[in-house]
Amino acid sequence: MNWINELPSCPACQSAYTYEDGGLLICPECGHEWTKDAAHEVSDVKTVLDANGTPLQDGDTVSVIKDLKVKGSSSVVKVGTKVKNIRLVDGDHDIDCKIPGIGPMALKSIFVKKVAD
């Protein structure tokens, strides 16, 4: 049987495993739900994923998964450090935040994981 998924990919995480439930399209990977009408709209929103592939949003709390040296300083952000109220930005370092004991910083999303609030 030659079956091809003709449903659109998830606009939040780009997963191809979407399915239809009534009038909604649902992504089983990230849980995003949208209508068929919204599937045709083009979104300019960039999706930022953590080290585990979980989508991040402004205001999320994340945990650092690796010791990170602070450039231009002898300080180190230790593994397990929780960072609250992140802000997503464009660029290589796609998270702006304030780290307790260090101050304002830019982090790469590949070095953090989302923490359940």
Automatic annotation (TrEMBL):
UniProt domain Protein YjdM C-terminal: residue ranges: 48-115
Gene3D superfamilies according to UniProt: 2.20.25.10, SH3 Domains (2.30.30.40)
SUPFAM superfamilies xref list: Prokaryotic SH3-related domain, Zinc beta-ribbon
Pfam family membership, one: YjdM
Source domain of life: Bacteria
InterPro entries cross-referenced by the UniProt entry: YjdM, YjdM_C, YjdM_N
Residue intervals of the Protein YjdM N-terminal domain: 6-35
Signal sequence extent: none
Family stated for the protein in its record: Belongs to the YjdM family.
The protein, known as: Alkylphosphonate utilization protein
